[in-house]
Amino acid sequence: MRRLMLFIFACSILLPSTVQAYEVLVLLSRRDPGYDEVLKGFRAVYAGSQRLVVLSDYTEIDMLRILREEHPRLVLALGDAALKEARKTLQTPVIALMSLCITPPSTSQPNLTGIGIMAPPERYLKIFQSLKLRRVGVVYNSAKNGWYMRQARQAARQAGIELVTREVNNSREVAAALNSLADRVDGLWMPADPTVVTREISEEWFLVAARYSLPLVSFSSAFLSIGAVAAVDLDRVEMGRQAAAMTERILQGGGVADVPPELPRSGQVKGNASLLKRLGMNLGD
């Protein structure tokens, strides 16, 4: 009996460890309070088994090996780095959140869906109306945000607002596009577009806004401290609940094809009080 126990113990050391079967691999780009809020909402709705992997905890990770050996039924990827890893699989369904690269209504991979980080256009149009803006400039990449901007233009016409747009193919064209808008509009709208909002080019939006005293409305409250007058801050807990509902539809047999990318359901308008006061504007009720 003792020999048998020693043999089992030796095997547990020498053989690769196995992970108990689970349904959802939760892949985080890094440890972040915002991601925690999303997971709080997700777990409040989805009760299935999960494994959490935080990419920043590892020097490198073999995503395909994890999928091959552990067979999760779905990957929930939070953040751009997590989405980059999740894209390596072409079979396992992936739901991506908190990434600029998810732009409804479709994605470039048949096994990929998710929730974008731009609120419905109507939420931003209400901000423009509160600020009494009539001509709003937008720079975007049509391949990334063409569908969204078509929706926005239609809603803007109904709201009596003109969107003055510039399309760009890469981030090098953004500065010139912004400057070409400056004397033609009375406000700027920064979209969640990975082409026009990069670490290198984001500053240009605020330089142009400051140079021409233009109010700039952004998709994220993170930009309020550096010059945006207002933003729609997403309800991350609700986004998690939304992702849980998508997960259940996929795992119940709907498949990714029947669960296309969605816009967030809810968000809160936040403003930069000091900048609004300086510009003589307010967001109303």
From TrEMBL:
Pfam families from the UniProt entry: ABC_sub_bind
UniProt keyword annotation of Cell inner membrane present: no
Keywords, ordered alphabetically: Signal
Record's signal peptide: 1-21
SUPFAM superfamilies with a match to the protein in the record: Periplasmic binding protein-like I
Alphabetical list of InterPro entries matching this protein: ABC_transpt-TYRBP-like, Peripla_BP_I
Protein's UniProt name: ABC transporter substrate-binding protein
Organism: Pelotalea chapellei
